[in-house]
Each structure stands twice: as C-alpha cells, then as structure tokens.
Amino acid sequence: MEQSEIRWNDEARAKILDDADNVLREAVSAVAASHADATSDEVYAELNRHLKDRFIDYEPGPDVRKYADAIVAGEFSAS
C-alpha cells in the first residue's frame, strides 16, 4: 500500500464534513443570538473564536466573513 492510498472511506468523509457543518451552524447560531448589535468585524472575530479550537489547522476564510456579514445585516434565520 502506498502512502497516497491512505484515506478515509466515503462514508467517513461524509460524516466528517457533516460534523464540520454542524460546528459551523452552532457557532453562527450562538454568535447571532448573542451579538445582535455588533459590527461585522466583531461578529467575524467572535465566529473565529468559536471555531478556532474545533478544527485542526483552522484558518478563517471568506465563508466566515459571509456569515458575519449576514448576521449583522439581519439575514440570519435560526429556523
């Protein structure tokens, strides 16, 4: 077996991605509920604070900014 052949099976990969999406949803919901009057930069920082210790080698990206902006614009729905 070659090192390049070592990888998660498709079911495990899907579960890992679902788990990551759930962590993101939880963070967005929590920050939206507690930072209604914050600026986009404050919400962005708070989202990153919630996410940074939940992922290996976490780096904030444009998705986090998109959700911060949506929270500040009142576009986030908890439903």
Mean pLDDT: 94
β-strand number? 0
Poorly predicted regions: none
- The number of helical elements comes to 3
Indicate how many domains the architecture comprises: 1
Distance, first to last CA: 46 Å
DSSP helix fraction = 55-70%
Shape verdict? elongated
Task: Bin the strand percentage.
Answer: under 5%
Describe the protein in words.
The structure is a single chain. With 79 residues, the chain is an all-alpha fold. It has one domain (3-73). The chain has 3 helices and no strands. It has helices spanning 10-34, 40-51, 62-72. Helix 1 packs across helix 2 (40-51) and helix 2 packs across helix 3 (62-72). The longest helix has 25 residues, at 10-34. The mean pLDDT is 94.
Structure in a nutshell:
This protein is mainly α and 79 residues long. It has helices at 10-34, 40-51, 62-72.
Keywords:
79 residues, 61% helix, elongated
Record the SSE blueprint.
Layout (H helix, E strand, L loop, with lengths): L9 H25 L5 H12 L10 H11 L7
Helix pairs in contact: 1-2, 2-3
